[in-house]
Amino acid sequence: MKYNILNEVKLSQIEPIGWLRKILENERDGMPGHLDEIGYPYDLPCWQLKSMADGGFEAWWPYEQTGYWIDSVTRVALLLRDNEFLQKAKSIIDESIENAHDGFVGPEDLKKDTTQCSRWPQAVYFRALYALWSGTGDRHYLEVMRKHYLLEYNKYERDRDGVNIETMLRVADILEDSELREKAKASYAEVQKNAKAENMDYYTGNMLSDVSTYMHGVTLNEMGKLPAVYYSAFGDKEQLKAAIHLYEKIHKDHILPDGVHSSQEKTCGNDSLKTHESCDITDYTWSLSYLLAATGNGKYADRIERAIFNAAPGAIAPHFRAIQYLSAVNQVRAARNSTTAEAFRNTPRMAYQPHHYPECCVGNIGRVFPNYILHMYWKSAGGFSAVLYGDSVFTDDGYTVTQSGSYPFGDKITFNFRCDNPKHLRVGLRIPEWCKAPKVCVNGENKTIVIENGFTFVEHTFKNEDIITLWLPMAFSAHESSDKGIYFDYGPLLLALKIKEKWTVDNGEPRQTADFPAYDVEPESAWNYAVTGKENPVIRRNAVSDDPWWSGYPLEVDIPARIINGWTTEIVTPECKDDSEGINNKQVELGATEIKENLELTPPLPTPEFIRKNIDEEKTVTLVPYGCTHLRISVFPKM
Question: Distance between CA atoms of 147 and 134, rounded to whole angstroms?
Fold first, then answer.
């Protein structure tokens, strides 16, 4: 867009290799690729239908949920160049377009319904159509969205309906369509007017205030990024300022050590027992990409990578067989009766299951890694910028760049250029804030590093086989949490205690199949340790497999720690209250699970007095990357 510092490249220009390709293959072959076999609403026709009643649907939720899934399948298939898998999503999309006789894509019920969120499902679903254009170059999908959005009765004036402005502006930019651009501008004005009248946190006046935000996580991200999108199209700096300020408030008040803000379903602070929805791993990182594009500030990429390398794999069972709906940085059990979030204690949301109620997270989690890969390379002044790192191939006009180095498990990254002819380029390289001694070479020659806005730039006439080498030395560091515990980082990786895990199938859970079971995970080794925060580590960097999160440990760090006697799990009687969306009989009929047995919960950090009275012998413990764990202590009590 006109006012962006960075602009997206097409999906067709990027191909993942190494572990990034493997994780997409796991996704294709795992739970996300088979949701249509696992359960409601993914096992039913939805977007293909002319009426919600034809599918037995009573509201828009299944369209949002299946929209997430169709988008994830589309992106994974295109990045893997897997045409057979692509047909799973594309056949649904094409049928829904065939049914759009007057241009309205979606069921007749939503066309007639102009209440709040009746247009929100298309905001989700149309990302898949946009990805099809980005991956194939077929402008038909852009024209379909343009026709839909310009229908007179389609209004985008309140709450999540306004998220459509994001895609309206992107499509208008590509098609150079002034009519669509003006409709988006008018819609944004209505969204802000209504947000002000309703005193919503995403009203720009509230975004600019210093009052902390407590709001539904998905709504906060989807609406909170819109001022940045608006700035990118129209250059209104006050809108960008509002988006920046909102995300700084989120970072200060709600970010957990694994890189994602709390969301139970609302943001709720950042102590070590707070959880976040898997939906928000996707939505937070997606929204940050708009601030990254608008500002060109590398700190947003730092935040994206922290979430992707920690929160994302930490919420996913090995080889993408199941996920958690809610996950936490401290969780010593992940079972049907282990949910610590008070409002949801009568649900199995912290268990690793192939399906959850509500059904949004199992569809949305599949967008996390494709979106990371899509945002690795960006167009920038004079060439391109490598913004997010990982083994991959990037192709542009007359040249191809192959990135290697197994990042984030290796700290030496190489960019090998293949050029049809000599090509003069200005190449941006992000220097993460955690890296204190970066080094850049071109063909073995050291280059002076000047860091501006989180980037250094290499200007060079590249020839075939030229190489940029970037070193980002990683270091072990200790930090204090908001609840006075200690957590440890190694570069972009959060570290967690290595706990022996026992996985058993939860035979009482209805939402599972023989191929994709629901699991209870219990600890088989001690976890009740305390640290000082001044430990001297012994660091072992091991061989990196093509599946490093779930096959071996690419990094192990030994530190001394001391047992705290009596710091154990807590037994609680479930209050069996309905959650904010309600577990009613209809949902139980559809497979939602209500927990009635006693709960066994991860405890809060013990008090200093309790630690002093119960501290025991010192032992050597091993820390591993957070994303390699499913049970974990990441925030340790401080001695």
Answer: 18
Q: Which residue has the tokens 């940045």?
A: 228
Q: CA-to-CA distance for 148 and 131, rounded, in angstroms?
A: 17
The residue-averaged pLDDT of 438-446 equals: 98
Q: Is the pLDDT of residue 147 over 70?
A: yes
**Mean pLDDT score of the chain, rounded to an integer?**
95
Distance of CA 234 to the CA centre of its chain: 27
> For the segment 304-321, what is each residue's pLDDT rounded down to a tens digit?
999 999 999 999 999 999
Alpha helices of 81-119 — where are they, by DSSP H? 83-98, 108-112
Helix (H, G, I), strand (E, B) or coil at 275: strand
> CB-hemisphere CA count at 13 Å for 445?
5
Pairwise CA distance, residues 220 & 106, whole Å? 25
- Residue pLDDT, tens place only, 361-412: 999 999 999 999 999 999 999 999 999 999 999 999 999 999 999 999 999 9
- And the tokens for 261? 């803000």
Q: What CA–CA distances, in Å, run from 567 to 526, 550, 605, 611, 615?
A: 11, 29, 9, 9, 10
Residue 587 has pLDDT above 70, yes or no: no
| 512: phi then psi, degrees, rounded to nearest 5 | -160, 165
Whether the CB-CB separation of 290 and 228 falls below 8 Å is answered with yes
Place 590 in a pLDDT band, splitting at 50, 70 and 90: low
Q: Is residue 219 over pLDDT 60?
A: yes
Angle at 475 between CA 552 and CA 315, to 5 degrees: 45
What is the identity of the amino acid at 444?
G
Run of H or E residues at 512: none
578 has a pLDDT exceeding 50: no
- Cβ density class 217-229: b for 16+ within 10 Å, e for less: bbbbbbbbbbbbb
How many angstroms separate the CA atoms of 73 and 32, rounded?
8
Can you tell me the distance from the alpha carbon of 333 to that of 602, in angstroms, rounded to the nearest whole number?
Answer: 7
Provide Rg for the chain, Cα atoms: 24
End-to-end CA distance of the chain: 52
Give the residues across from 489 on adjacent strands: 477, 494
| Residue 294 vs residues 157, 187, 375, 410, 592: alpha-carbon distances, Å | 24, 21, 13, 30, 41
Backbone angles phi, psi at 57, to 5 degrees: -90, 140
Tell me the CA distances in angstroms from 149 to 99, 417, 567, one per residue in order. Answer: 16, 41, 57
Alpha carbons 599 and 576: distance in angstroms, whole number:
11
- Helix (H/G/I), strand (E/B), else coil: 507: coil
Q: Encode pLDDT of 489-529 as tens digits.
A: 999 999 999 999 999 999 989 889 999 999 999 999 999 99
